[in-house]
Amino acid sequence: MKIAIAQTIAVKGDIAKNIAHHLMHIKSALEQKADLILFPELSLSGYEPTLAAGLAIELDDRRLEAFKDIARSENIVIVAGAPIRSGQDKKPFIGSIVFIPNGTTRLYIKRYLHGDEELFFSSRSSMDQIEYMGHKINFAICADITNPQHPKDAARDACNLYLASVLIGQKNIDLEVDLLKGYAKEYGMTVFMSNYGGESGGYLSGGRSGAWSKDGEVIEELNHLESGMVLIEI
Question: 174-179 long-range CB contacts below 8 Å, 24 or more apart?
Fold first, then answer.
């Protein structure tokens, strides 16, 4: 299985332009025969909490059809981030939308919010795991990885691939990468992180999108703060 980790630079609040950028990354991933591509937290809108309510989408949004079509026709799993409309609650969820080749769409919702996020977003339990190509894949979004219960629950479910979509700034990147390395080693799972390549929501990203092996060693990570992609074969 080949997993592409995208490191993107979002256009603030412009879902159409960000979808276009996603499609470029997906095309590159397909050229390298990737089976799955992972994007950062809120990658379709940018990390913009104050704008999130107005940008929130539903899973049947017509703008997502391109991802559904590519997942089906090219046999690739696409994991993209967006603010998700939450029904009666005015505050949206922070979600990872998982487009699966069989035509289904799954949604993982950020379980643990941090800081001021509770002013702008809601949270609840949601789908955690999919099984694909013989792997048990769990998802995390940013602050989820700072709560040790999250990877512990993934390990309890026999997860072997732990995929984190994040916006982590330069101040905290080393600490949180060390957390991911520790989870990989403690629970014997390969850990992946997709971070931004530039600024979003007033935070300058720390980059370092990449993957860490079951013994906590780096497989590969980006060492620049730009748009890019890492391809990892499992």
Answer: 174/206, 176/145, 176/146, 177/208, 177/221, 179/145, 179/146
Domain edges within the chain: 2-233
What gap in Å lies between CA 116 and CA 50, rounded to an integer?
Answer: 10
Q: How far is the C-alpha of 52 from the C-alpha of 16, rounded, in Å? A: 15
Task: Write the single-letter amino acid at 213.
Answer: S
Q: Are 214 and 232 in contact (CB under 8 A)?
A: no
CA-nearest of 84, 98, 88, 106 to 39 is: 98
Total H helices, total E strands in the chain: 6, 14
Return averaged pLDDT per consecutive 10 residues of the chain, 234 residues in all.
Answer: 97 98 98 98 98 96 97 98 86 97 96 94 91 98 97 97 97 96 98 96 95 96 92 95
pTM over 0.85: yes
C-alpha span between 140 and 62 (Å, rounded): 25
Question: Could you tell me which of 192, 36, 25 has the C-alpha nearest to residue 106?
Answer: 36
- The CATH H-level superfamily of 2-233 is Carbon-nitrogen hydrolase (3.60.110.10)
- Residue 104: count other Cβ atoms within 10 Å of its Cβ: 12
Q: Which of 65, 49, 87 is nearest to 201 (CA)?
A: 49
